[in-house]
Amino acid sequence: MPGSYRKVIVVGAGPAGVAACQQCIREGIDDVLLIEKDKIGGLIRQANRIENFPGFVGEDGREMVEELEKIVSDYEIDIEYGDVEKIDEGFRLKCDGTHRKAECLVLATGTKPKSLDFVGEKYHPEWRDHTGEETVVIGGGDAAYDHSLRIDKLGGEVTVLRRSDPKALPVLVKEARERGIKEEKAEPTEIEKDENGFRIRCEDDVIQADQVITAVGREPNIPSLTFPLDLEDVKFPTGETDIDNLFVIGSTVLGTYRQTSLCWGMGIAAGMKMSKKLRKK
Q1: I want to staple 221 with a disulfide (CB 3.0 to 4.6 A). Which of 22, 31, 112, 258 is the partner?
Q2: Looking at the 3D structure of the chain, how many domains does it have?
Q3: Cα–Cα distance for residue pair 109/107, rounded to 1 Å
Q4: Per-residue pLDDT at 3 exceeds 50
Q5: Among candidate residues 214, 244, 259, the one where a domain is terminated
Q6: Are residues 17 and 106 in the same domain?
Q7: Quick one: pLDDT at residue 15?
Q8: Is 178 found in the same domain as 105?
Q9: Are residues 24 and 38 in the same domain?
Q10: Highest mean pLDDT: which of 58-62, 176-180, 193-197?
Q11: Do 145 and 55 share a structural domain?
């Protein structure tokens, strides 16, 4: 059973976190622990179609998740499942009642969705048959249109409800329109859930739906820290911060540049930098 002290702890098993672990092991740093709250893959699991990662173009996110799981297995990456509740100075982590301490700490914890705070709110459509369901996706960015395309392919009827012109990639908007996905330009003022589903009130209209998906933006998902951390100072591509041996990588810090290929690249760069520091020490 591994001890509580590890040379490298990576929090988050999305593309960035898995790449960082893989690179450390390739560089000969084998005392690496990967901590994941839920499932390997992170948000890539939700992708309707991958377009910017060689080998997976045209596939949905589940295909890449399988490859990430294979990397974790093939490289024998030590992975623990749990929720990191708090991180103290000196990189002491409290995770589901247990404690770990790292010499180098990598936060690859991704982002969390912004909420509209209504009963029954969902942030991602499920991978299942949606035939016969009316779904409203609120938002006008990439995620909103990506979710809408997935639901459409799974048999559902979709309306994209956005308050302004689309902010999504033109290729996503074009495909949605070619597939006949409806678009409404309005801002919801109230969303109610009852036995018949959802009633979405806008200024001049009321829309009825079986389910509502919120896709109005995301923000960094950082565990509770007992020390200050300024994400504005994170260096690209290594993820180095102004705190020695603390790295923040992937979509947590990429903002509008949240792309799988860039997350993977940051993971590799962080792994290279950590390995160099540890070997020198």
Answers
A1: 112
A2: 2
A3: 6
A4: yes
A5: 214
A6: yes
A7: 97
A8: no
A9: yes
A10: 176-180
A11: no
What's the rounded mean pLDDT across residues 97-118? Answer: 96
Of 149, 161, 140, nearest to 206 by C-alpha is 161
- Cα of first residue to Cα of last residue in the chain, in angstroms, is 26
Tell me the pTM.
0.91
Give the max Cα distance, the chain: 66
Q: Structure tokens of 44?
A: 């890539």
pLDDT at residue 1 tops 60: no
Say if residues 176 and 149 touch (Cβ distance below 8 Å). Answer: yes
**CA angle (198 as vertex; 192, 203 as ends), nearest 5:** 65
Token pair 């990397």 is found at 71
For residues 12 and 95, membership in a common domain is answered with: yes
Residue 182 scores a pLDDT above 50: yes
For 32-68, b/e burial (b = at least 16 CB within 10 A) is bbbbbbeebbbbbbbbbbbbebeebeebbbeebbebb
DSSP annotation of 176 reads H
Do 72 and 17 share a domain, yes or no?
Answer: yes
8 A C-beta contact, residue 34 and residue 72: yes
Taking the C-alpha atoms of residue 226 and residue 276, their distance in angstroms, rounded to an integer, is 27
- Please enumerate in sequence order all residues whose Cβ is within 8 A of that of 260, keeping only pairs 6 or more positions apart, or say none: 15, 44, 47, 50, 52, 53, 64
Three-class secondary structure of residue 6 per DSSP: strand
C-alpha span between 213 and 203 (Å, rounded) = 20
CATH number at residue 193: 3.50.50.60
CA–CA separation, 229 and 266 (whole Å)? 19
Quote the domain boundaries for residue 251.
Answer: 5-112+218-280
